[in-house]
TrEMBL record:
GO terms for molecular function: protein dimerization activity; zinc ion binding. Keywords: Metal-binding, Nucleus, Zinc, Zinc-finger. GO terms for cellular component: nucleus. It is found in: Nucleus. Residues 409-484 form the HAT C-terminal dimerisation domain. InterPro entries: HATC_C_dom, ZnF_BED_domain_contain. This is HAT C-terminal dimerisation domain-containing protein. It comes from Parnassius mnemosyne (clouded apollo). Signal peptide: none annotated. Its main location: nucleus.
Amino acid sequence: MIAVDMEPLRKGEHEGFRDFVNALDSRYEIPDTTILKKKLLPEYYENVKQKLVIALSKAEHVSVTTDLWTSIANEGILSVTCHFFHNEKLIAPLLEVVKMEGSHNAENIASMLDATLSKWDIRSKCEAITTDNAQTMINAAAKLHIRHIPCFAHTLNLTVSDSFAVTCLDQILKKCKSIVTFFKMSTLASDKLRAIQRELNKPELKVIQEVPTRWNSAYHMLQRIVTMKTELTLALNECNRAPPGVNADEYLIIQETIQILEPFDLATTKISGESYITLSLIIPLIRGIKTKLVEVESQIVTESGNKILLCMKGSVDKRLSPYESRTPVVLATILDPRFKKKGFKTSDDEKRAGQWLEKAYASHLTKERLAVEETQPTPSTSSGTSNDLLGFLDVPDVSTPLSNSLVDVRQYLEKPVIDRKECPITYWKYTNNKLKELAMLYLCIPASSVPSERIFSKAGQILTERRNRLKEKRLNELLFIKQNSCYFND
């Protein structure tokens, strides 16, 4: 309960909790804090850990995400989550959170990641590392010789941020932020706003502040400003020292901006999941964003709106389009039976994806064949000359990995795609084709580093001002149980 609900380890000492437990059953003795810390917590951690070790030993391919965070105690903390298929489900358990001492450079990050992967005995089966776009993270993956996947959610946020450089939008954002700050800082203004909302029979919504580190927060701020347009206008007019309100022309630009930003918000939400396959979503989502921006273009009437849209299109080409040429992303897309070639925009892209799949599959079959040949004895050759002139016909045909790959890939691609609501994992489970081995390799790779960032959100609820001296070991145990007990709880 303490780990899952992120309660303090001294929960059993709280008077209200003790009274509550006593009312339920006066015979029950609450374990004291020392027993909790030194016995029960480590025992439960080891129990869940052993189950994870067994699950990892059975996994053929895994991928990881990692991120760095500075705690309230001003300590650098590195998180590592692992992603693999277990019991026909994609799971994202936490491997560990560890305090990072010294410089946060690529060499130190690589060293700590290598130690973590080796500790869990998954170094040889780790297919990819997904992180943010920081150069140190990219270099760390390169030092480990593990393919790096830049977080797509982070890239979407950078793409949206580029549009804020447009002068007219920058000025409107500053005005909206000052309005939000005014209502956040003034109790009188907030009271006035709530009174007007009740008078107009409107829901008592609050304004939302834009925070640079919180993805899409500017979009949500603008959306809320438009939703509360009438109440905000009236409240600002009745408050002393209120900042200037948003005029009609600016509201029109805001509404057009919301239309432009909406597909990015939807894409961020979709790509941030950890219980379903995400890497194969990147290329279809990019195509969907580009399609939506073309549709929105006909609805933009202001000059400022057109400038914002033009800037956004340029940023999409600059930041998102490179994903369409990344081998893991392309292969994940074509190996997802919901998309196959339909996920790609042009026939050239479809053709290239098919060729890359054939090449990757042939390479996979070759490695598999060589591994088998190494374990089998070399057949002996008989001496002497055969008198059978037709003996050559008895020699079995030897198929090449390339020929096998062409057949399997063609058969897979010729079948119709499955419904988007169906599960790709279930599809591959019932497919008697070695291509599924390649599919399991690429489809377990996460498209974003959000799982690691969620760990830090949970850590922030555990490491508070009142609990800033919690030891690294205790923090790791609590977060490990919080994240993983749902996967391995009997």
